[in-house]
Amino acid sequence: MNKEQLIQKYLDHSLTDEEKILLENETSINPDFEKELEEAKNIRVAIIAHKKETLRTTFKKLENQKKPTFFSAIKYGIAACFVISIFTIAYFLFTVPSSNNTLFLENFEPYRNIIIPIERAAIPNQNKNKEYLAFYDYETGNYKTALLEFTSLYQTEEISYYLFYKAICELRLDQVDNAIDSFLTHQKLNDSFKEKGKWYLALAYLKNNDIPKCKIILEDIVKHKSYNYQKAKEILEVLTTN
């Protein structure tokens, strides 16, 4: 699969687990590809915003038109039904893709494992320690098992990054309320993952349709130019136009 196909499948949210790993690897080793991916996402967001603004302007013009006379009501009524049908279709074509959930999907990627090197080609055996097994499952997309392992590790050792990766797993598995609770707890621990956790907490609020809390965190990220502040700025712009 070439890079253009990989980008298109990413934008269409149709990547397989193997393709997601391929995409993650490519972005980590190829800055130009990562830049191209970001540009493609930005162009899509801009097109959607433009289409929505065009629809708003057209609706406003229609609302300001003179009320038709009684004798022309039938004629305009038929035309109005046609226009309403067109705009209803257009609304779902251009509004639904820019919904909060889609906006979440466009910006969410599980944070990479930077704790322990994993040999993906090799099948782990029981001689590996629990931490290795947890990150192996995490890297290979087995998030359900990784969640159980990170939960157990954090309960036993209370190492903060276990909680961070646990929350990522919860968010990836659509356990949004649990993820929010985990990220909020992690924010109190002040480790090197705190700013990254703040970004993912904002995404969790976005997915949960809690836009006021999402905006507060995104604004703080932009203000302090912390992790992913450019993406935070883009999401804020989209949320403001909705």
Features:
73% helix; globular; 242 residues; single chain; 12 helices; mainly alpha
What is the topological layout?
Elements: H1 3-11, H2 17-29, H3 31-63, H4 73-94, H5 100-107, H6 130-139, H7 143-157, H8 160-172, H9 176-187, H10 194-207, H11 211-224, H12 229-241
Oligomeric composition of the shown chains: single chain
Q: Which class of secondary structure composition applies to the elements?
A: mainly alpha
The counted number of beta strands is: 0
Measured as a percent range, the helix fraction is over 70%
Shape: globular
- The rounded Rg comes to 23 Å
Task: Describe the largest sheet.
Answer: none
Q: Let me know the average pLDDT.
A: 81
Our count of helices gives: 12
Distance between the termini: 35 Å
* Percent in strands: under 5%
Low-confidence residue ranges? 79-98
Short synopsis of the structure:
The protein has twelve helices and no strands.
Verbal overview:
This protein has 242 residues and is mainly alpha-helical. The protein is 73% helix and 0% strand. It is built from twelve helices and no strands. The longest helix is centred in the first third of the chain and has 33 residues, at 31-63. 23% of the residues are buried.
